[in-house]
Amino acid sequence: MNANILETRGLSKSFGGFYAVRGVNLRVRSGTIHALIGPNGAGKTTVFNLLTKFLQPTQGEIRYDGYDITLRKPSHVARMGMVRSFQISAIFPHLTVRDNLRVALQRRLGTTFHFWRSGRMLDQLDDRADELLSSVGLSDVSNEVAMNLPYGRRRALEIATTLSLDPKLLLLDEPMSGLGREDIGVVSNLIRQVNQTHTVLMVEHNLSVVAELSDAITVMARGRVLAEGSYADISKNPEVRTAYIGSAHA
């Protein structure tokens, strides 16, 4: 079995001659929490868009779970088990918490997006929906309208909807964005729990969270990989301190 669930080789993306990402070699080991960090404009979101096929690379190769997915479509990659969350909320605010999960689980029935079908068809999804809600600590609000949830619990619901797709690799785009201290603790614990059965790759600006959660860290600057290793290693790297930590305290 390949120890790396995800690997890129020479991954590059240019826009009109400007390289947002250049020559990125990224290796994510199965079963780990891997953080992708760097200052604004470093190319982190572009890398995420390349990995999940929202963008096609100008050069390079992407291998996932042993397969070359460089030219695959986003839907195919998602069906293979690479699932992504976004910074912007992806929940249905006017549905209940459970109904958000039931919509996400429709893929199992082959009725995805068939909103006009009888609600009774979705009843068979309740057990799995409740199981997912329990796994992210939302059982007590299953009948609450999603828009009424505190922000941290909305994040938990978003993670539950991504888990409904049975991912092998979960990509989290700034999961702590906009959260207060208490909610950060809740979501951090949830990510640890998810990592017991899933590999996690996350873009995150909160260095305290990165230090606490990550098994490995890749630091980007100006579209390139600047360093890779544990937090203890990269925090001592003078180039990293200048490019990332220094800029954060400028």
Written overview of the protein:
This protein has 250 residues and is of the alpha/beta class. It has 2 domains: 1-81 and 170-250, Rossmann fold; 90-166, no CATH class. It is built from 9 helices and 11 strands. A 6-stranded mixed beta sheet has the order 7-8-9-4-10-11, sandwiched between helices. Strands 1, 2, 3, 5 and 6 form a 5-stranded antiparallel beta sheet that branches. The N and C termini lie far apart (44 Å). The mean pLDDT is 87.
**Rg over CA atoms:** 19 Å
Number of domains: 2
Write the H/E string, N to C.
EEEEHEEHEHHHEHEHEEHH
- Relative strand content: 15-25%
Strand order of the largest sheet: 7-8-9-4-10-11
Q: In percent, how helical is the residue content?
A: 25-40%
Which CATH class of the largest domain?
A: Alpha Beta
Largest sheet: 6 strands, mixed
Instruction: Quickly give the CATH architecture of the largest domain.
Output: 3-Layer(aba) Sandwich
What spatial form do the alpha-carbon principal axes imply? globular
Distance between the termini: 44 Å
The count of strands amounts to 11
- State the low-pLDDT regions, or none: none
The averaged pLDDT comes out at 87
Give the CATH superfamily of the largest domain: P-loop containing nucleotide triphosphate hydrolases
